[in-house]
User: Fold ABC transporter ATP-binding protein from Sutterella massiliensis.
Amino acid sequence: MANLIEVKNVGKRYERGGRPFWALRNATLAVAEGEFVTLLGRSGSGKSTLLNIIVGLLSPTEGEAVLCSTPLSGLTDEAASELRNRSVGYVPQGAGVLSTLTVLDNVRLPWYLAHRGPEPEGRAQQLLEEVGLGDLANQYPSALSGGELRRVAIARALMCEPKVIVADEPTSSLDAQTAREVVSIFRRLADKGTGVLMVTHDTFSVDVSDRLYDMAEGVLTERAKA
Ligand SMILES: Nc1ncnc2c1ncn2[C@@H]1O[C@H](COP(=O)(O)OP(=O)(O)OP(=O)(O)O)[C@@H](O)[C@H]1O
Ligand SMILES: [Mg+2]
Assistant:
């Protein structure tokens, strides 16, 4: 199976209080078509830093990231955002939905940004139903709970039928049952060939994932699955 994500010897150095420190060191990781990969690690260990590099929102200090066979290093911001929109379902940490659009329009937005023409009949509504929000389609985000907003972000990430899903704690602030449903959606998509890279603390995701990586103080290691 082809790799959808390839990260080779990637590092990210930040400055803090005038002193440099490495948030990520020499990280190497791959996610192939049809693979569900989970990334675990304590708060501040560098997980979001790695994900942001993978989706082309952050430049690494060293090393190389390749997304859907395209090296990110040579791309302009515009080209990176085009690639992300076309191929990646990114669920950022936090809500990140637009408060001036209804829930339904938030989910639809990536389709129109990708210039893909008319939306397939009812697709956004169907995705909202899959994440249990069918009844809230016409509400504005200000009327939603934290967990409902997370689910809007998940539905939105699936709108353009991404080749690869990169999700940063998508199940945080969800109850166990809803979290399981979200993870099951990702698992089903992986079984149909989508690559999934997910940061989580849920043991259920660990159980259904094909491979696991641990992040500790910027150091990434693959865990042998028991
Ligand atoms: N722009 C920045 N400038 C300086 N330091 C940063 C910056 N962004 C992140 N960091 C630091 O880099 C480290 C890794 O941050 P990161 O967001 O990747 O952690 P994380 O594993 O995603 O944590 P969490 O589980 O809390 O989301 C942290 O110590 C953080 O404070
Ligand atoms: Mg994070």
Observations:
- The chain has a mean pLDDT of 94.
- The chain has one domain: 3-223.
- The longest helix spans residues 176-191.
